[in-house]
Write a structure and sequence with these properties.
By secondary structure, this protein is an alpha+beta fold. The chain has six helices and three strands, in the order H-E-E-E-H-H-H-H-H. A three-stranded antiparallel sheet has the order 1-2-3. Helix 4 crosses helix 5. The longest helix is centred in the C-terminal third of the chain and has 22 residues. The radius of gyration is 14 Å and the shape is globular. The chain binds FE2/S2 (inorganic) cluster.
């Protein structure tokens, strides 16, 4: 993906009109992650049916515009996917769907990926379901951010 220096139209659209904002009563899984460096926090709720398909997703993000846009796109991408396929909604997939992010904003999309993983982890623990490739979530994504930059 070529480097972008400003926000794409899609990023602006999802920032100005974020999809799936809100909370969920009795979610199948909920996860909260933050980035201690910028102070942004994201909470993701997933409603997962008996066939292990994500029926609905909601989010609340206290963060920058890119964090809001990436959470919005991430919820759109996980809806209708099986919990296994939801693992493919990586920060790169979210960024690509948004037409890219400026390099300084890449970490915001990591927050979205980790929030999905945290919610899936909560679901997997509650239902004793094993999801391939899913690891225990981190509370602060700064660690992952360092890996991403290497
Ligand atoms: Fe922290 Fe965007 S600046 S998530």
């Amino acid at each position: 993906m070529s480097q972008v220096t400003e926000y794409s139209e899609k990023v602006m659209d999802h920032f100005m009109n974020p999809r799936n904002v809100g909370e969920m009563e009795n979610p199948s899984g909920v996860g909260t992650v933050g980035n201690a460096k910028c102070g942004d926090i994201m909470r993701m709720y997933l409603d997962i049916d008996e066939n292990q398909v994500v029926r609905d997703a909601k989010f609340k993000t206290f963060g920058c515009g890119a964090a809001i846009a990436t959470s919005s796109m991430a919820t759109e991408l996980v809806k209708g996917k099986s919990v296994t396929d939801a693992m493919e909604v990586t920060n790169r997939a979210v960024m690509e769907a948004l037409g890219g992010l400026p390099p300084v904003k890449v970490h915001c999309s990591l927050l979205a990926e980790e929030a999905i993983h945290a919610a899936l982890w909560d679901y997997s623990q509650k239902n004793k379901v094993v999801i391939d490739g899913l690891k225990a979530p981190v509370n602060d994504i700064e660690e992952l951010e360092k890996e991403e930059q290497e």
